[in-house]
Fold:
Amino acid sequence: MSSVRGGPLLLDTSVLVEALRPSGRVDVRSAVYDAVDDGVAIIIGLIRVELLRGARDRAMFQQLATLLDGVVTVPTGPQTWARAADLGFTLQRLGVAVPTTDIVIAASALENEATVMHLDRHFEFIAGASELRQIYGGRTESTI
Structure:
């Protein structure tokens, strides 16, 4: 699988965890590995923190850190945080409850013209209130 519409794929923690689990879904693992191999996978520092803090021990932490070093980490600057605040404000006014971490990830995707690959339904809610492009588990795209 290559990038959606030719742009980067921002890999959410949910798909990274699923791809790395020995019992994880094969379709998700394949989609994540293809994105990395194709050079279209990106993450943000927040995703790195989410993944690494869940490591079961220091050895796994080091292994995951090395793996993540092979994926481009895009910066989250003042514009990204401003966009996240605006997006969070909009979602709140619509009565949509979404974790702040997912709002920041979505804002980063919008800033980088990326599609979020995820296994987290919050991104579908965000796409319903913004121009976020997202694919659930590497299967279907939704832009609203």
Remarks:
- The two ends are 22 Å apart (CA to CA).
- The chain is about 50% helix and 15% strand.
- The first helix runs from residue 13 to 20.
